[in-house]
Design a protein that fits this description.
The chain is of the alpha/beta class and about 575 residues long. The chain has 2 domains: about 350 residues, no CATH class; about 160 residues, Serine Threonine Protein Phosphatase 5, Tetratricopeptide repeat, CATH 1.25.40.10. The chain starts with a helix and ends in a 14-residue tail after the last helix. The N terminus is likely disordered. Keywords: TPR repeat.
C-alpha cells in the first residue's frame, strides 16, 4: 500500500476514536493538610510513609497530641482536634490553600452523642468538613445533618473554595498498620491501572428502593463506557467474587444473602473504590476475631453491632471505601450513580466521594488517599485568591448595612432557621413586598416540622403567589388538600410551581382531569422540572390514560439523573 494511503488510514483511525477529555482538579500535595496523632507511633509512621509517597511539604504535616481511642466526647473533639486545626489554619492564613484534611490512623473518628435524625452523634471526619464555614460565620447547628453544597456538583467542575465553603476530609486507616500502608501503596499504583476493568453492582432487587435505584442508575450511566464490564446483580444471588474490580457497591450485611463468614473473593485493582449501604460499617477499626460472623444475634455483636465492616474490604484490597460511624439512614450513604462515573472518568477519590454525599456534620467516614485517581485528569494550580477574606468582609458588611436577606441566607446555611426567620421579619418590616429569594428560604424552613406553624403565621395576609405556594406546600405535607386548594385559589396562578401544586391537590381530591390539565400547563412553562412528571404519570393512570402514563414512566426510568424520582413511579 502506498505510504500516503497508509498515513491517511492512520489519520482517519485516529480522528474516529472518541476523544477523552481530562477532568480538571486543583487538588495537589501542597493543598492537603495531614493530621497526625503524636501519641500514636503507628500514626506517625504511616504519616511519614504517606508524606514521602506523595511528596507532602513538611509544613503541611500537623502533629497533635490527642486521645488514641476511637470515640470521644464533643468537648474532647473541640479541644484536641478542631480547635488546634483551626488555630493552625488561621495562623498561616491557609483557609483557602487547604482543600483536603487527611487524618492518619489513631486520630479518633467518632463523636459520642444522641444517635437519631436530630441527634448530635457524628463522625469526626464529617464534622471537620464544616470547619471552613465555621471559621467564616461562626457555629453551625449540631443536631442532625446539614446539606453538602458539593453534592451532585458538575462532574467537570474541580473542587475549590471560590464555590464551596467546606473542606473534603478523608482518612488512612484499617485494622492494622500494614492495612493502612497498603491503602497508600495501592493509591500511588492506581495511575498505572488501565482497562479492562469490572464494576460490581450488587442490588437486593430491581429499581424500586432508593439504594437499588442508585445502583441501577450507575449501571445505565456506565454500561457503554469503553473498557468497563459491569457485573450487576438485580434479582439474583449475592455476588462474592469478581476479576479486575475497579468499583464495588452492595448492601453489605444488610443483604440477607451476604456471607455470614464475611468471605469475599474479589480481586481489586489498585485504585478500586466502593460503598456499602451499612449503618455502622465504620463503627470501629479494631480487627474482629478471625471467625466472627455477621448477623448472628446480639450475643455475637462485635463492637456494638452485628453488621459488616469496611475494614474487611480494606484487608481484601480495596483502595477507597466509605462507611458510617453511627446510623446515617440510607439517604446519607454515598450514592453509586454519582460516585463511580466521576471517579472512573478522572475525578480524584476525595472529589468523587464528596460529590456523592448529600449531607455533612453527619456519620460518613471516607477511607483512602484523597489524591488517588484512575481516569485522565489535568492538574491545575491556579493562583490562590482570598475567597475566605472576601466572604468574611461581605458578612461583616451585611451586618453593618443590615442586609437582612443575606444574613437570613447565612443563618439558614448554618442550620439556624430561628435566626433566619427573625431577619426575614425585619426585612418584611422594611419592605412592602419580599424578594423571591425570601420565599425560597421560607420554603426550606417549611420542610422542618417545628417551623411549619411559624411560617404560616409569618405569611398571614401575604397575597404574593410565592407565599401561597409555601402555605400550600405545608398543607399538602399534612394531606390537608382542601386547605391547600383554598390557599392556591386565593390569587390568579401564573407560575409553573403554583399550577403544579394545584394539580397535585386536584389529583388527591380525585379530580384527575383537572390534575392532568394543570400539571401539563406547568410542564409547558417549565419543561425540565422533572419533579412534576411522577404526578402527571399518576394523574394519567387515574384518568385511564395508561398508555401515555407508561410512556412517561419508561422515559423517566431511562434517565439515571432522575433516580431519586423512581420510587414515586411504583405501581
Amino acid at each position: 500500500m502506498p505510504k500516503l494511503k497508509i498515513w491517511l488510514v492512520i489519520f482517519f483511525l485516529i480522528i474516529s476514536v472518541p476523544r477523552v477529555f481530562a477532568l480538571k482538579t486543583h487538588l495537589t500535595p501542597e493543598r492537603i493538610l495531614v493530621v497526625v496523632n503524636t501519641k500514636s507511633p503507628k500514626s506517625k509512621r504511616v504519616a511519614a510513609f504517606y508524606q514521602k509517597a506523595r511528596q507532602i511539604p513538611a509544613e503541611n504535616m500537623l502533629y497533635l497530641p490527642m486521645p488514641t481511642r476511637e470515640e470521644i466526647t464533643r468537648p474532647f473533639y473541640l479541644k484536641f482536634i478542631e480547635t488546634p486545626i483551626r488555630k493552625f489554619l488561621e495562623k498561616k492564613a491557609w483557609q483557602d490553600k487547604i482543600l483536603v484534611i487527611l487524618l492518619m490512623p489513631d486520630v479518633p473518628h467518632k463523636i459520642a452523642g444522641k444517635v437519631a435524625k436530630n441527634g448530635d452523634a457524628a463522625s469526626v471526619d464529617s464534622e471537620l468538613t464544616l470547619l471552613y464555614r465555621k471559621m467564616l460565620f461562626g457555629p453551625y447547628r449540631k443536631d442532625g445533618w446539614l446539606p453538602n453544597p458539593y453534592f451532585q456538583s458538575p462532574i467537570d467542575e474541580p473542587f475549590e473554595h471560590d464555590r464551596y465553603d467546606i473542606y473534603l476530609v478523608t482518612r488512612i486507616d484499617g485494622y492494622t498498620e500494614k492495612d493502612s500502608l497498603a491503602l497508600i501503596k495501592r493509591a500511588t499504583a492506581a495511575k498505572k491501572t488501565h482497562p479492562p476493568y469490572t464494576l460490581v453492582l450488587d442490588a437486593k432487587d430491581g429499581p424500586a428502593r432508593p439504594g437499588d435505584n442508585w445502583l441501577h442508575a450507575a449501571y445505565l450511566l456506565l454500561k457503554d463506557f469503553p473498557g468497563l464490564k459491569i457485573e450487576a446483580s438485580f434479582n439474583r444471588a449475592f455476588l462474592v467474587s469478581g476479576e479486575r474490580v475497579i468499583g464495588y457497591a452492595s448492601w453489605g450485611s444488610n443483604d440477607p444473602n451476604y456471607p455470614k463468614d464475611r468471605k469475599l473473593y474479589f480481586k481489586f485493582l489498585p485504585g478500586a473504590i466502593g460503598v456499602t449501604f451499612v449503618s455502622t460499617s465504620a463503627r470501629t477499626f479494631i480487627e474482629p476475631p478471625r471467625h466472627w460472623q455477621v448477623n448472628r444475634g446480639r450475643k455475637y455483636f462485635f463492637q456494638g453491632s452485628p453488621q459488616s465492616l469496611i475494614g474487611d474490604l480494606v484487608r481484601l484490597g480495596i483502595t477507597g471505601i466509605s462507611g458510617n460511624a453511627y446510623e446515617p439512614y440510607l439517604s446519607a450513604c454515598a450514592r453509586p450513580h454519582l460516585l463511580f462515573p466521576a471517579y472512573i472518568k478522572g475525578k480524584t477519590l476525595a472529589e468523587a466521594y464528596y460529590r456523592s454525599l448529600a449531607y455533612l456534620s453527619w456519620q460518613t467516614v471516607v477511607l483512602g488517599d484523597p489524591l488517588a485517581s484512575i481516569g485522565p485528569r489535568e492538574v491545575e494550580r491556579p493562583p490562590l485568591e482570598n475567597w475566605f477574606v472576601k466572604r468574611k468582609e461581605a458578612y461583616q458588611e451585611a451586618k453593618k448595612s443590615k442586609d437582612y436577606l443575606l444574613l437570613a441566607k447565612i443563618e439558614m446555611h448554618l442550620g439556624w432557621p430561628e435566626k433566619a426567620l427573625k431577619y426575614l421579619k425585619k426585612l418584611k418590616e422594611e419592605k412592602e413586598t419580599l424578594p423571591p429569594q425570601a420565599y425560597y428560604l421560607l420554603l426550606a424552613m417549611a420542610r422542618q416540622k417545628d417551623f411549619e406553624r411559624r411560617v404560616i403565621d409569618f405569611l398571614k395576609y401575604d397575597s404574593n403567589e410565592n407565599a401561597k405556594i409555601v402555605e400550600a406546600f405545608i398543607y399538602i405535607k399534612h394531606k390537608r388538600y382542601a386547605w391547600a386548594e383554598k390557599v392556591l385559589l386565593e390569587t390568579p396562578l401564573k407560575t409553573p410551581d403554583a399550577l403544579f401544586l394545584l394539580g397535585k391537590v386536584k389529583l388527591a381530591l380525585k379530580d384527575c382531569e383537572s390534575a392532568v390539565n394543570l400539571i401539563e400547563k406547568a410542564i409547558a412553562l417549565k419543561p425540565n422540572a422533572w419533579g412534576f412528571y411522577p404526578d402527571l404519570y399518576r394523574a394519567l393512570k387515574a384518568c385511564g390514560q395508561k398508555e401515555r402514563a407508561e410512556k412517561i414512566k419508561t422515559k423517566l426510568l431511562q434517565m439515571p439523573s432522575l433516580a431519586e424520582l423512581w420510587p414515586e413511579l411504583k405501581n
